[in-house]
Task: structure prediction
Amino acid sequence: MAASLNSTRSSFETPCGAYGQFKITRYLLRVTRDSRYGDSMERVLYNTIAGAKPILADGTTFYYSDYNSDNGKKVYYKDKWPCCSGTFPQLTADYGISAYYPSADGIYVNLFIPSRVSWSQNKTQYTLTQQTSYPTSNTTELLFDSARAENFTVYLRIPAWADAKTGVSINGKRVEAEVVPGKFLALSRTWKAGDRVQFEIGMPLRLEAIDEQNANTVAMVRGPVALFAVGDIPAKLNRSQLLSATAAAHSSQDWVVGGDARSLILRPFAAVGDEPYRLYHRLEG
Ligand SMILES: [Zn+2]
Result:
């Protein structure tokens, strides 16, 4: 993996790779109810396909993501209408259908996206509306509506990376149950129209090594989102420098290391345009 950072610019076949990953994780999640597959799905959603350049009218298509250490760049593929021009639109349906999983005893909330789902619980029709600007914000809100009240369980995915600031409130009252990262949290009660779940997800900054053999070749990650360095990237970086990053102005999704004109800017893949970037950094020491 680490060697590929110098040897290729065809790092990840983005629409087809993401489509395949979504398909596999959707079935695995349905069968196992293991929240790790949901964690994996959202990582691929935010860090690959959500940052793909749009398909153009003549079939010009984004194909490979470039993670080369010598400045990556978003470019279009040489051929018109390749495989990735078909899987890209399929994915735009997939992340919606993978957001919720109704089950006999309730509903699983897997993805935190602005959305609405309707399903039948004990023969009562329920609608759940989710409002959020996740993953830019670290909160989401679920609002329930139904003609009658029924007893069932809402399973909320607690990402494995979530820290101690994570918590759930129902109608403004903090849930006492232990919140375990890497599991679904079961919220069992009689759900009625107007019930509101507020979910705050503690989203720490962390550094992830590209593989076990290269512990000092790392990407910066916040919650589910990888942060790509852009602009004047210093030749030398260390762990504490990167982890000292703070959120930039409220209107941007950028993170900043150092507060002056020579600051290092870190940006989600979806917010990267035509500027060169670097995903993996070789740290000193
Ligand atoms: Zn393809």
User: Anything to note?
Assistant: DSSP finds five helices and 20 strands in the chain. The longest strand covers residues 124-132.
